[in-house]
Amino acid sequence: MPALCATPDSSLPCSAATDDASSKRLSWGKIMQKLTDFSNHSLHSDDEHFRSVFSHSGSDSVDSVSLSESDFLYDPVEETLCSEVVDLIEQSLTEAKDSALRCSKLLIPDQLMEHIGQELLHLAASEPCGLRGALINLCVEQSDACQSVEQIAVDPDLVPTFQLTLVLRLESGGLWPMIQDLFAPRSHSAPILRHALRLNTGFRVIKKKLYSSEELVIEEC
């Protein structure tokens, strides 16, 4: 099966995306092998867990086993795929500093990437193909403009079932404006493109179903 890939989207209302986006790919076969191994291990562990519970309870009925809501919602395959997508988003943002964002350095908080991963899983949970059916538009708000950074098709061989637009924000308040120059690399041979930029931990996500006429879902995270 082909790779996770990132491609520019000329139809977005934001500014033009980067030209070399299509060059970034992850090995889909490698990912699927990881998912298969992880899933088999998880199923074996779950089987041993149920055997242990039944042997101690003296019952053969699944109804006697109390499972939390998170046990039903947890999907190791989806979690692993989400981790790969978050890594690709972070890679796209890092590479955009020299092109779309035109800054000398881009600082990406770990908390932001963690929140993005949680939101991806949440919004994909009700979709027929899960996260594999997602088409992700990655944008960064700069002043009054919205700069398009990347478009990511989670599974290029699958017709997308929903579109997510992630609108990230730049840090503009607090102590950051006074210390951002400390993070900008200085060189006598080349001028600095711009100050170092830092992304805020908050962001906006817009979900659009591509197979129905339902209204957009907009969440502030």
UniProtKB/TrEMBL annotation:
Keywords on record: Apoptosis, Cytoplasm, Mitochondrion
Localization (cell): Cytoplasm; Mitochondrion
InterPro entries assigned: RTP801-like, RTP801-like_C_sf
Domain of life where this protein originates: Eukaryota
Gene3D superfamilies named among the record's database cross-references: RTP801-like
Major place of residence: cytoplasm
Family: Belongs to the DDIT4 family.
Protein name as catalogued: DNA damage-inducible transcript 4 protein
Source organism (scientific name): Huso huso (Beluga)
